[in-house]
Amino acid sequence: MNAEIIEKLKAAVGEKYVLTEDEATKPFLVDWTKRFVGKAVVVRPANTEEVSRVVRIANETRTPVVPQAGGTTLVGGSIPDDSGNAILLSLSRLNKIEDIDTVNDTVTVEAGVILEDLHKAVEEKGRFFPLSFGAKGSAEIGGNLATNAGGTAVLRYGNMRDLCLGLEVVLPDGRIWTALRGLRKDNTGYDLKQLFIGSEGTLGVITRAVLKLYPQPIGNQTALVGVESPDDAVKLLNECRTAAGPYLTGFELMQSKCLVRVHEQLPDIGLPGPVDDCPWWVLAEVSCSPDSGPSLEEILGKAFEDGIVKNAYLAQSLKEFEAFWKIRESIPEADARVGNNLHNDISLKIALIPEFLDVTVRRLKDAYPWLDPSLYGHLGDGNLHFNIGSIPSNLAFENEEGIRKITYEETVKRNGSISAEHGIGQLKREHFLQLKDPLELELMVKISHALDPNGIMNPGKLLPDRK
Ligand SMILES: Cc1cc2nc3c(=O)[nH]c(=O)nc-3n(C[C@H](O)[C@H](O)[C@H](O)COP(=O)(O)OP(=O)(O)OC[C@H]3O[C@@H](n4cnc5c(N)ncnc54)[C@H](O)[C@@H]3O)c2cc1C
Fold it and tell me: The FAD-binding PCMH-type domain covers which part of the protein (predicted)?
């Protein structure tokens, strides 16, 4: 990047917060999977005003801007290319929790607040922010919004689209759009915030947000439940839904081998007992309240009688509740330790999942007999992490194109989505451009051109290259 631009950036945010040396920039320029590595000047503004100054400079000089929050995207979304021409805009210094309003049940936060820090802060005020997932200790609110993050409680509370009541965004020309009124009802025209949520940094930089809060659940019942097949897991889901209604907050499906791998790779995380007697396990959570109906134990008792459930461990304490979730949330980390996993993040109508698994795994194994899938996900949301490895060899990566082709063909054939949570980023861009409805894609491109005529926002991600 030319020296003049670097000087302007230093004047905008302070010399200390413009990083140009490899040693200083390196940690920002590699993603969680270590697959994507870029090159850029790293700029670390402290507030919205400074973000606006940086983006204005970028727009005037036609310099690409890559927003980055916690850097936990699994699709290379917050890593620039290796040209060295871009500004990596780190939002992590915007980390203030500005206002916890327990009457409106909302919180106003800056984009760089770490998700887990938000959990702790609102808990102190007797409130609950429901978005949660394995990377909560690093992922930040701006990244969660820009990816429309989901996680383990979508079943009851929805994803970031459902949890956001207002945004502040620095537009690609540097202007600041502030819409932080925190209203639950507002029918004055288009809901513009929804354009920015899930836009993966291609339309502007999110700097602040108003998010919904909930009362702390009075209690939780959680169980690890062994079943014979995904089909039985779907039956159990149906029974839990019927019995617990809105109090069913989590319903995760995991292959037995995922649990075993967590314990092998992260020995501090114990399993509640043997798990190899069932090929699949469900982590089910029901939140209690005075009118929440039958307990999880009663629901599972009936499912035992119906032959749907083969084994179950019911958490007997808060410690066990946390330990069960720790197992589930550590699967990606355990997989990463053995390496060589191709991440997929698909969604389907729930009833189609057992048949999809059956057909797709069979097709893949016919083509690649050595493959070793790691299958788990948010069954209650119809979302599967259909991860394909070839441990310990690198064969899965060498055959990535063919594996993805079969996986996505089977997904699209059933009207599913190739990205339920993680977004498109760099990893899935080519497939997304081929598979997305052409009219939807045309509209997305038009919106991007309207807001960002110079094409500075996160180029090479999600949308086609500008001509
Ligand atoms: C172990 C593990 C488990 C995970 N589990 C889940 C899960 O259950 N559910 C789920 O949804 N995801 C999951 N993820 C994926 C990831 O954590 C989420 O996508 C998360 O929301 C990304 O947040 P981040 O702060 O790390 O964003 P980053 O990775 O920094 O950025 C993500 C995208 O948002 C853009 N962006 C970042 N900040 C801004 C901003 N302020 N304004 C505009 N654009 C911005 C970036 O350019 C990039 O395109 C998981 C990841 C890991 C590593």
Answer: 35-216
